[in-house]
Write a structure and sequence with these properties.
By secondary structure, the chain is mainly alpha-helical. The chain is about 70% helix and about 0% strand. A hairpin with a 2-residue loop joins strand 1 and strand 2.
C-alpha cells in the first residue's frame, strides 16, 4: 500500500492534463467519429506514456537503460520514415486520378491551395522558430498527416509530436473549419454557380503512365521528393495496372489500416507531458490553423481570379478542395453547393481538385526539403 501511495505521489499535474488530452482524443474518435483510426490510438498512447515510470517509453534505472516499446517503434517506423512512406502506398492505391486526368486544369487550384504553407513558413520564422521547425510547422497547412510526419522527422524538428497531433486534428476538423472560411470568401451568387460535368473516358494507358511520369518529373524538379511522391504513385500504379488487384486491395485496407494504427500509437511516444505542454505547442496550434485557413483561401482566390478571364465560369468553392484532406474537403464543398441549390452537383469537380491537392501537397513537401534540407 505504501508503494502505491508513493507511485501516485509521482504523478504530476502535467501528466494529469495529458491524460485529459488523451481522453478528449478518444472521445472525439468514438463519439464524434473524427479520424477514429488515428485519434483513438494517439489518445490511448498519450495516456500510456504519461504514467509514472511507464514501461511504454525508455526508462533509466541505476544507470541501465530499458528501451520502451513505443520508443523502439518510433526509432523503427518514424525516424527511418518507414511508416509514413508505407502509408503513402495505401493512400495512392485509394486515389482515382481520373477526374483530374479528364480535366487537367483542376491541378491549378490544387497547387494554389498550398499557398498557406509557404506563407506560414515565413510567419513562423519571424516569430522566432528555427527554420527547420518553421518549415515543419508550415506543412500542417497541407492537411496531409503523412507528409507532415515525413518533413518534421526529416528536419528532426523539436516539436514533432505537437506538429503531428495538430496536423491530424485539423484534418479531422475539416467539416467544421472550412465551411465558414468558404462562405466568408465567396458570395451566394458564386456558391450557386453550376458546373457541367462530362464523363470523359480516360484510357488505361494514360492511367498507368500518369504515376510513372509524375514520379520522373517530380524527381527531376525536387529530387528529395522522390520517396514521398514515388511511394504515393507506386500505390496508384498498383491500383491502375489491372494485374495486381489483390495487392491493391490489401494496400488500401489492410496495409493502410495497420500502419495508421501503429503510427497513432508510435506518435504518442513524443507526447510526454514535459515535451508537449509548452507555450510553443499552443503557438503551433495557432500557426497550423493559420496555414490551414490560408491554404483554403488561396485555392478559392485563384479560382475567383480564373473566373475573371474564363468564358465558362467555375464555382470558386472547388478551390477550397485543393487541400490534401481527401475526400473530406470535396464532400464539404459539394454539401455547401447542395445547401445553396439542391440541383448543384460539384462533387466530381471538387474530387478532381482534391486529388490534385493530395499530389500538390506531397510535391510541396518535397520542395520544402529541397529548399531547406
Amino acid at each position: 500500500m505504501l508503494e502505491l501511495f508513493e507511485y501516485v505521489a509521482m504523478v504530476s499535474w502535467r501528466q494529469v492534463v495529458m491524460w485529459m488530452i488523451g481522453g478528449l482524443l478518444i472521445y472525439l474518435a468514438i463519439k464524434k467519429e473524427m479520424e477514429p483510426s488515428l485519434l483513438l490510438p494517439i489518445g490511448f498512447g498519450a495516456i500510456m506514456v504519461n504514467l509514472p515510470l511507464s514501461g511504454a517509453i525508455t526508462q533509466i534505472e541505476n544507470g541501465v537503460s530499458e528501451i520502451g516499446v513505443l520508443d523502439a517503434l518510433f526509432s523503427f517506423g518514424i525516424e527511418t520514415e518507414l511508416f509514413p512512406l508505407l502509408l503513402f502506398i495505401g493512400i495512392g492505391a485509394m486515389i482515382d486520378f481520373a477526374p483530374l486526368l479528364a480535366n487537367p486544369k483542376l491541378m491549378i487550384f490544387g497547387a494554389a491551395a498550398q499557398f498557406g504553407i509557404f506563407f506560414t513558413l515565413c510567419v513562423a520564422a519571424l516569430l522566432g522558430f528555427e527554420l527547420k521547425d518553421a518549415a515543419s510547422i508550415a506543412i500542417i497547412g497541407a492537411a496531409d498527416g503523412p507528409t507532415s510526419i515525413f518533413v518534421a522527422n526529416y528536419f528532426r524538428s523539436n516539436y514533432l509530436g505537437a506538429i503531428i497531433i495538430v496536423a491530424y486534428s485539423y484534418m479531422a476538423l475539416v467539416p467544421i473549419i472550412q465551411p465558414p472560411v468558404i462562405r466568408f470568401c465567396t458570395t451566394k451568387k458564386e456558391r450557386m454557380i453550376h458546373m457541367s460535368y462530362t464523363d470523359v473516358e480516360v484510357s488505361k494507358a494514360t492511367r498507368i503512365l500518369f504515376p510513372i511520369v509524375i514520379t520522373i518529373v517530380s524527381g527531376l524538379v525536387a529530387p528529395k521528393s522522390v520517396a514521398l511522391v514515388g511511394f504515393l504513385m507506386f500505390g496508384n500504379l498498383l491500383r491502375e495496372c489491372g494485374v495486381l488487384n489483390s495487392l491493391s486491395e490489401t494496400a488500401q485496407k489492410v496495409l493502410a489500416n495497420l500502419i495508421t494504427l501503429l503510427l497513432g500509437l508510435t506518435v504518442a511516444a513524443r507526447m510526454q507531458a514535459e515535451l508537449f505542454l509548452t507555450g510553443e505547442t499552443l503557438l503551433i496550434l495557432a500557426l497550423g490553423l493559420f496555414a490551414f485557413v490560408f491554404d483554403t483561401v488561396g485555392g478559392i482566390m485563384i479560382a475567383k481570379l480564373y473566373n475573371l478571364f474564363a468564358r465558362e465560369k467555375i464555382n470558386p468553392m472547388i478551390g477550397a478542395a485543393g487541400i490534401s484532406a481527401f475526400p473530406m474537403s470535396a464532400r464539404v464543398v459539394h454539401k455547401i453547393g447542395q445547401q445553396e441549390d439542391h440541383g448543384n452537383h460539384l462533387l466530381m469537380h471538387a474530387i478532381g481538385v482534391n486529388v490534385s491537392g493530395q499530389l500538390a501537397s506531397v510535391i510541396a513537401g518535397g520542395l520544402i526539403l529541397k529548399l531547406f534540407g
